[in-house]
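User:
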Amino acid sequence: RLHKRMNETRLRLAASIFPRLDVRRYRTAHDYRDEIDHLATSVMVGGFVLFEGDVDDVLHSTTRLASLTGGRLLFAADCENGLTMRFSGGTECPSMMALGVANDLAATYSVARSIAREMRALGIVWNFAPVADVNANPDNPIINIRSFGSKPDVVSDHVLAYVRGMQD
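Assistant: Predicted structure:
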């Protein structure tokens, strides 16, 4: 019985792991593809965070891995302003800062919904966005245009609109 519980614990832990997947390399390098396939089918990771390549590489990778695992994997990426943030192809959308400056919640919702549709068409169901930081530190260049702005109420309103758009 202890062995069974240890195996169940191992599977739960593995399902919470989301390794990096270079979709271009997965499509072109057989040894790398074998390693990723092993993680998906034997180690039973929960999914992958996708990087590099283009939209064709993404679709090929997610389709192949979903087929190997019966569709149980989750695929994630950082696509704040669209697929082009991580992959060539797709539609490039305005930055969070541009949406915050326009301060049109319907536009933020629409942009997020459009991003979600393109992601879903490629099998990506988890977007590491939006950035909910308030851009209040001029010495922090990382946040910059990835934030909806410097006013907490504007940022929170746009974060909500973006999340609704992604979910819808």
